[in-house]
């Protein structure tokens, strides 16, 4: 290979010199989740499951944004690591906003002026081969259930660690939630995504709040 | 040799190969990334007025008649947008003419536009793929978009819209719509020009072309989530649903 071509190829595979490239479509499979039960506070463990069920079905029926953590497992995700190194976006097929992870060195927005949102406010930095993402500023919009137990609340703090495995064929994301009203100690679980084949297309899983049949299915008890 | 040392050599050699003064972080194409927003740069005095100078589309007679009837219903007080009442997904190119900023994230193989309004991120594939076979193409809100660079201009070709959206200048989108966009930085990256050309034999008598200018948002800008709750009486009561026949 011509040395200039080789150098150009090497450059183009690196979003920013030296950083791993986590861009691309990623999907979960049946063996992708290692989710231990969360250690819940007595208040969280005593929550009325029927009330939460109704809240979740209401969010689905009315096409509310789904938010983190559901957007990380509800469909394949497309990670785009901006080539200037200042931002990473995670888009899903769900009709829910994409996640913006700011990697330009900024801190979190002042909570006094930030309107909480379903994905929270995320900032990231590289620690060697690992992308560390820190998120606060969550709202109660959408599906709030956290894998393993508990719920996302405005007090939740999420730290994620993204790391490529197997030469870039797999992506490990370790999630750690802290929320003293939900957990007696930080709750950690891991997803290992598979890289989707080259040429994978994004889908749009749309949502219609005016669909009566859909609304009945989501709000009425199943019939025998 | 350590991986870090190898990377350093690649960086040094690559800099030497590209030569000094090259500010682009990778590849040879402009960096479009960042938040972009429209402004009232035509002196219209209000945001809606910024679209008034866009040339009127040459529409087919049946589309003109449909537009006239819709205007009549609106004049009678019937609000015709059921999509607002039900928080329907905003159809492309709605977010491109909205006041809310949108964000471009750019890799070598893909550009994604992330709007704040409630719709999907728009994926523009730059990896050389073609549009799917029309028989297999699933129509979507944003259509299927592929792009390539012509010098400093990103040319994006889109088909496969579900249709029903509106274009500036009085046009509409349909499943037969074909859109070509040309993205080009101006003023050293402070502004972004996007020229849209819609071609659709079911809507337009001839291709409809217009240009919108976007301004780079301040560094540190962050995204909002513009939610819409159809179960909120303030939302659902904001429009009157037309009587069903």
**Helix-strand sequence of chain B:** HEHHHEEEEEEEEEEH
For the biggest β-sheet of chain B, the strand order reads: 1-2-3-4-5-6-9-10-11
Describe the sheet with the most strands of chain B.
9 strands, mixed, barrel
Shape of chain B: globular
Q: Count helical runs of chain B.
A: 5
Helical percentage of chain A: 10-25%
| Order of strands in the sheet with most strands of chain A | 1-3-4-5-6-7-8-9-10
Structure at a glance:
Chain A has a nine-stranded mixed β-barrel. The termini of chain A are far apart. In chain A, strand 6 (121-127) and strand 7 form a beta hairpin.
Keywords:
heterodimer; A: 224 residues; alpha+beta; Lipocalin; nine-stranded mixed beta barrel; 4 helices; 10 strands; B: 245 residues; nine-stranded mixed β-barrel; two-stranded antiparallel ribbon; 11 strands; 18% helix; disordered N terminus
Report on this model:
The complex is a heterodimer of chains A (224) and B (245). Chain A has 4 helices and 10 strands. Chain A has 224 residues and is of the alpha+beta class. Chain A starts with a helix and ends in a 5-residue tail after the last helix. The model of chain A is unreliable at 5-13 (pLDDT under 50). Chain B is α+β, with helices and mostly antiparallel strands and 245 residues long. Chain B has one domain. Chain B has 5 helices and 11 strands, in the order H-E-H-H-H-E-E-E-E-E-E-E-E-E-E-H. Chains A and B meet through helix 1, strand 3 and strand 4 of A and helix 1, strand 2 and strand 3 of B.
């Amino acid at each position: 290979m011509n040395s200039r071509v080789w150098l150009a190829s090497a450059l183009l595979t690196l979003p920013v010199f030296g950083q791993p490239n986590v861009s691309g479509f990623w999907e979960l499979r049946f063996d992708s989740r290692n989710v231990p039960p969360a250690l819940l506070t007595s208040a969280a463990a005593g929550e009325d499951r029927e009330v939460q069920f109704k809240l979740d079905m209401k969010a689905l029926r009315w096409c509310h944004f789904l938010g983190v953590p559901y957007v990380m497992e509800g469909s394949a995700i497309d990670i785009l690591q901006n080539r200037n190194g200042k931002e990473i976006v995670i888009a899903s097929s769900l009709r829910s906003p994409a996640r913006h992870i700011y990697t330009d060195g900024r801190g979190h927005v002042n909570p006094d002026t930030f309107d909480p949102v379903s994905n929270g406010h995320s900032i990231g930095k590289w620690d060697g081969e690992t992308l560390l993402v820190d998120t606060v500023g969550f709202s109660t919009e959408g599906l709030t259930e956290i894998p393993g137990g508990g719920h996302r609340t405005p007090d939740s703090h999420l730290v994620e660690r993204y790391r490529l495995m197997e030469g870039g064929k797999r992506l490990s994301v370790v999630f750690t939630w802290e929320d003293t009203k939900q957990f007696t100690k930080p709750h950690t679980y891991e997803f290992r995504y598979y890289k989707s084949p080259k040429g994978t297309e994004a889908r749009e899983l749309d949502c219609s709040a005016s669909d009566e049949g859909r609304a009945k299915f989501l709000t009425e008890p199943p019939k025998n | 040799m350590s991986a870090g040392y190898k990377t350093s050599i690649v960086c040094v050699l690559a800099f030497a190969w590209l030569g000094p003064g090259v500010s682009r972080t990778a590849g040879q194409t402009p960096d479009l990334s960042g938040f972009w927003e429209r402004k009232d740069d035509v002196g219209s005095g209000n945001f809606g007025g910024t679209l008034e100078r866009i040339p009127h589309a040459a529409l087919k007679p049946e589309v003109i008649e449909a537009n006239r009837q819709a205007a009549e219903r609106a004049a009678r007080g019937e609000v015709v947008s059921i999509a607002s009442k039900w928080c329907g997904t905003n159809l492309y190119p709605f977010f491109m003419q909205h006041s809310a900023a949108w964000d471009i994230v750019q890799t070598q193989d893909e550009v994604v536009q992330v709007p704040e309004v409630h719709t999907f991120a728009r994926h523009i594939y730059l990896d050389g793929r073609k549009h799917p076979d029309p028989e297999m193409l699933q129509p979507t809100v944003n259509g299927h978009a592929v792009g390539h660079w012509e010098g400093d201009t990103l040319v994006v070709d889109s088909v496969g819209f579900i249709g029903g959206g509106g274009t500036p200048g009085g046009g509409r989108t349909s499943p037969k719509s074909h859109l070509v966009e040309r993205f080009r930085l101006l003023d050293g990256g402070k502004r972004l020009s996007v020229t849209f050309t819609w071609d659709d034999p079911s809507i337009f008598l001839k291709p409809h072309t217009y240009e919108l200018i976007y301004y780079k948002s301040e560094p540190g800008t962050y995204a909002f989530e513009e939610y819409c709750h159809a179960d909120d009486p303030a939302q659902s009561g904001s429009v009157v649903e037309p009587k069903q026949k």
